[in-house]
């Protein structure tokens, strides 16, 4: 049993670390937990991220013990990531070498009852922005031994070893105590030494192929066996690339594929997988093209429609999937994907190493497209629904989305924008950490289910836009791993050239990057029929180095413009009418030039619109929602006040809204919703493309930073509140959005002859068109106010939402508007929208004579008991309840019929089960007939 245990530990450590470059050396070699160990880190090895980085360098370190659940479960970590402790600072030795030493168990503070198995490391600079890891991005582990006999190959440093014929190398075996060492080559003894702790032997390879080196170490009681293989590369393996193939998986016929990998500066590549039992051989060694730029191999004898997993083994160290594959398997992530989401997902192959393999499949069943008469909406009139599948549907899959499109069609949007759906690290991400750019993420379902989503959208006249992330790639991306030392990468900058950079920054001036970008953009349009792209962080597509200066980064950049035009031109060669949308936020002169070229640009007015909605008017001017006010020629500004990246307007209203006027308290639900109606009216009536974020049409009121209200929760999953549709006041907001979006079918709301005036409390939009003129007036104050408007002519005008007429006798007309009230007037009658409540915050038909219900909770904050009181103007069915901020019912204080009068109820800060509630904020809610009002109370303990 002892022999087997030692052998297992040795093999485990070999698989996890020794197949990588020698990032660490340490003394003593067979350290026990009682030893003092000295560790030297070579920053030029592994991913080499810290090569050349000036000290100080810190070790971020912990241990793997017998109580760890896996290699990621570090215990007794010395310091938080941001803490620069002196005892974790590495001593610089020069030449990218750094040293640290300590007594193991004492240093980590591990109790004697817990067995230490490994020391775990990554290394970082002082602010943690640059991290040294293994070449494949994994953590670095060192073994910790129990007393006894152990052996290890300490030369060659990299195993398995790949050598050329005749290239001599040294083999060194070391042991923890004197023992007999027998060294064998292909099971034949070639060297032996009794009673020693080290044996050296030189091997000169002959002939190509795989050879096994084995050490048998014995002290007469215990025998320890260790082994590795070396592979001798054939002297010549150069061949021209076959005609008609390109980088990636090329399906020749139902039984044959040709694999092509672009890998300049690499020495050799094997293609190993299910099709060759994961064995390296001369047959699996890929040919090198004469220019040494590409590697290729043709695989024959495949079974039609059978899936085969495979990897590329590059230079004997790097294992990657095919960068252009349309499916990967991920050892760590796929176990969380259900059979319902992805039926029949094949298991990760036991023979594969690392976390990721590609999948190929000949004779795939093609998707049968149903929609043949689709006409793409004009980009100038797009209404885009931005959607994160994870937080939109409980099942988070393409198949369910395809069955949910009627909801969006009924709303009136004519495009959906899917946040990134290509394979990204993990399963629960927003998707801005892509790794395999041509493979739909399986957490969302199959690729044919995605095609069905697009097919169903096109059948409804709705475009589908893909959020494309080509500014950065995560560490598991094949292109990153192919050149782990980014200083040598043909794709990425070693240091990003701009602020707000995450992961690995693409160099868009590199021809290798440009080829990859063009292939990816071509793929999703041709294979999936996407209508275009929204390019994330497009301002980062530059080699002009602005460091951390956001202002300099935003300045006009001719080189960036040229790169974006080049990319757009290539997209338009594939599809001349494809949408090209940029998340840019650069100098207006640059955005105008890109707009003139045919691209669309995001117009973020979140702050100004939300200030207006909250009743804080000094910074509420959203006039730049108009492309005309920006000096643009074309309506290519995609205006919005909510996106995935901005705080939700309803959360702002309920949390920060103006409460100065108790009769117009913006922090109450009804008022908050109607203030969103108002800003929506001043968004969707402005000509040009517009966008909304999912569930904004229902007044989604969870913070972008839910649940902790810190940036740490920004990308965390959020509650999915389809039940909001059942709440009349929220459904009314949906219907308002629908009515506003419906106006955009009329030429008046597509005109280039309009103006937006949005300074101060009185905001106005004027639209001029031969068919119909329109005037939109709104009072954004929290008290009633006079709002003047200049109508295009006198005569009869029509209020869109009420259907009532107004006789304008003077073009310069002043109206007295209640707080939050707005009107859309047209000089032609239009169908009156079906709304359940009056629009705006004026007189409410469900609130007779603008009655003050005087809903109040005292004391507030409360510790013990609270009194919740209100007035009732007319008989009504009443419910008084307390909820959590997430909408869960806590306590029903009253439900029943009440006559007019004043009422008071005691809440003892307990729930319906009589249990005291936890300290925190809660909502109390009055429902009287169809009147609803909500307040917030803080409970102290």
Describe what you observe in this structure:
This protein is an alpha+beta fold. Among the domains are: 1-147, Immunoglobulin-like (Sandwich), CATH 2.60.40.1930; 248-361, Immunoglobulin-like; 379-599, Glycosidases (TIM Barrel, Alpha-Beta Barrel), CATH 3.20.20.80; 852-939, Sandwich (Immunoglobulin-like). The chain contains 15 helices and 50 strands. It has an 8-stranded parallel β-sheet. Helix 8 packs parallel to helix 10 and helix 12 (606-614) packs across helix 14. The two termini are 58 Å apart. The model is unreliable at 1-21 and 837-847 (pLDDT under 50).
Radius of gyration: 33 Å
Please describe the biggest sheet, giving its number of strands, its sense, and whether it closes into a barrel: 8 strands, parallel
Distance between the ends: 58 Å
Largest sheet: spatial strand order: 34-33-32-31-28-25-24-35
| Beta-strand percent range | 25-35%
Quick recap:
Among the domains are: 1-147, Macroglobulin (MG2) domain (Immunoglobulin-like, Sandwich); 248-361, Immunoglobulin-like, CATH 2.60.40; 379-599, Glycosidases (TIM Barrel, Alpha-Beta Barrel), CATH 3.20.20; 852-939, Sandwich (Immunoglobulin-like), CATH 2.60.40. It is 16% helix and 32% strand. It has 15 helices and 50 strands.
């Amino acid at each position: 049993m002892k022999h087997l245990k030692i052998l297992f530990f040795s093999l485990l450590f070999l698989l996890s670390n020794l197949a990588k470059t020698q990032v660490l050396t340490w003394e003593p070699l067979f350290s026990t937990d009682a030893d003092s160990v000295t560790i030297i880190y070579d920053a030029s090895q592994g991913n080499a991220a810290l090569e050349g980085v000036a000290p100080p360098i810190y070790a971020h370190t912990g241990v793997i013990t017998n109580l760890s659940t896996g290699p990621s479960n570090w215990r007794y970590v010395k310091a938080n990531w941001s803490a620069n402790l002196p005892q974790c600072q590495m001593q610089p030795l020069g030449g990218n070498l750094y040293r640290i030493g300590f007594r193991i168990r004492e240093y980590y503070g591990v109790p004697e009852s817990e067995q230490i198995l490994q020391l775990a490391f990554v290394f970082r600079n002082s602010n943690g922005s640059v991290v040294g890891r293994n070449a494949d991005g994994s953590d670095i582990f060192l073994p910790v031994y129990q007393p006894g006999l152990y052996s290890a190959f300490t030369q060659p440093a990299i195993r398995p070893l790949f050598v050329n014929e005749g290239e001599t190398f040294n083999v060194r075996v070391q042991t923890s105590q004197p023992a007999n060492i027998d060294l064998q080559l292909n099971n034949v003894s070639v060297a032996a030494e009794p009673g020693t702790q080290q044996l050296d032997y030189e091997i000169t390879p002959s002939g190509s192929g795989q050879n096994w080196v084995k050490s048998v170490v014995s002290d007469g009681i215990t025998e320890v066996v260790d082994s590795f293989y070396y592979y001798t590369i054939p002297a010549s393996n150069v061949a021209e690339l076959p005609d008609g193939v390109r980088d990636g998986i090329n399906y020749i016929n139902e039984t044959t594929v040709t694999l092509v990998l672009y890998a300049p500066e690499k020495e050799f590549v094997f293609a190993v997988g299910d099709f060759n039992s994961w064995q390296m051989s001369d047959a699996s060694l890929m040919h090198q093209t004469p220019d040494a730029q590409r590697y290729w191999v043709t695989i024959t004898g495949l079974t039609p429609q059978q899936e085969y997993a495979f990897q590329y083994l590059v230079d004997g160290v790097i294992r990657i999937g095919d960068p252009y594959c349309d499916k990967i398997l991920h050892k760590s992530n796929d176990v969380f994907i259900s059979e319902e989401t992805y039926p029949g997902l094949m298991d990760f192959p036991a023979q594969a190493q690392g976390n990721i393999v590609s999948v190929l499949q000949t004779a795939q069943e093609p998707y049968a497209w149903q929609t043949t008469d689709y006409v793409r909406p004009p980009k100038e009139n797009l209404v885009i629904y931005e959607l994160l599948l994870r937080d939109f549907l409980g099942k988070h899959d393409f198949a369910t989305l395809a069955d949910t499109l009627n909801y969006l069609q009924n709303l009136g949007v004519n495009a959906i924008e899917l946040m990134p759906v290509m394979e990204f690290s993990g399963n629960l991400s927003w998707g801005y950490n892509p790794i395999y750019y041509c493979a739909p993420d399986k957490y969302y379902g199959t690729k044919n289910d995605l095609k069905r989503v697009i097919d169903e959208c096109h059948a409804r006249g709705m475009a589908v836009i893909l959020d494309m992330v080509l500014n950065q790639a995560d560490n598991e991306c094949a292109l990153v791993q192919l050149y782990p030392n980014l200083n040598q990468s043909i794709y990425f900058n070693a240091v990003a050239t701009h602020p707000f950079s995450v992961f690995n920054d693409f160099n868009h001036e590199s021809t290798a990057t440009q080829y990859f970008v063009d292939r990816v953009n071509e793929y999703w349009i041709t294979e999936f029929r996407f209508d275009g792209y929204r390019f994330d962080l497009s301002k980062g597509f530059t080699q002009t180095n602005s460091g951390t200066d956001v202002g300099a980064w935003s300045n006009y950049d001719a080189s960036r413009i040229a790169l974006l035009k080049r990319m757009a031109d290539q997209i338009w060669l594939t599809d001349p009418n494809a949408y090209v949308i940029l998340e840019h936020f650069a100098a207006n002169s640059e955005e105008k030039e890109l707009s003139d070229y045919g691209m669309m640009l995001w117009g973020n007015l979140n702050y100004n619109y939300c200030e207006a909605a909250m009743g804080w008017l000094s910074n509420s001017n959203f006039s730049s929602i108009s492309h005309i006010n920006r000096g643009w020629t074309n309506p290519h500004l995609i205006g919005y006040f909510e996106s995935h990246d901005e705080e939700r307007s309803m959360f702002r209203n309920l949390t920060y809204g103006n409460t100065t006027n108790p009769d117009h308290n913006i922090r109450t639900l009804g008022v908050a919703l109607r203030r969103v109606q108002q800003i929506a009216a001043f968004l969707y009536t402005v000509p040009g493309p517009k966008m909304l974020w999912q569930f904004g049409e229902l007044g989604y009121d969870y913070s972008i930073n839910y649940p902790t209200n810190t940036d740490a929760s920004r990308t965390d999953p959020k509650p999915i509140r389809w039940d909001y549709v059942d709440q009349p006041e929220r459904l009314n907001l949906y219907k308002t959005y629908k009515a506003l979006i419906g106006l955009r079918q009329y030429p008046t709301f597509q005109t280039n002859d309009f103006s937006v005036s949005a300074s101060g409390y009185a905001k106005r939009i004027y639209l001029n068109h031969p068919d119909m003129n329109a005037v939109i007036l709104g009072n954004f104050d929290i008290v009633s106010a006079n709002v003047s408007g200049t109508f295009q002519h006198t005569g009869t005008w029509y209020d869109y939402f009420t259907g009532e007429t107004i006789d304008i006798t003077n073009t310069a007309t002043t109206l007295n508007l209640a707080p939050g009230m707005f009107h859309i007037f047209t000089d032609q009658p239009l169908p009156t929208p079906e709304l359940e409540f009056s629009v705006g915050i004026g007189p409410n038909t469900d609130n007779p004579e603008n009655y003050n219900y005087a809903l109040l909770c005292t004391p507030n904050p409360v510790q013990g008991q609270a009194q919740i009181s209100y007035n009732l103007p007319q008989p009504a069915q009443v419910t008084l309840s307390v909820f959590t901020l997430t909408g869960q019912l806590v306590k029903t204080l009253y439900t029943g019929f009440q006559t007019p009068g004043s009422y008071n109820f005691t809440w003892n800060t307990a729930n319906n089960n009589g249990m005291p509630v936890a300290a925190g904020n809660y909502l109390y809610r009055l429902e009287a007939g169809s009147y609803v009002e909500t307040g917030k109370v803080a409970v102290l303990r």
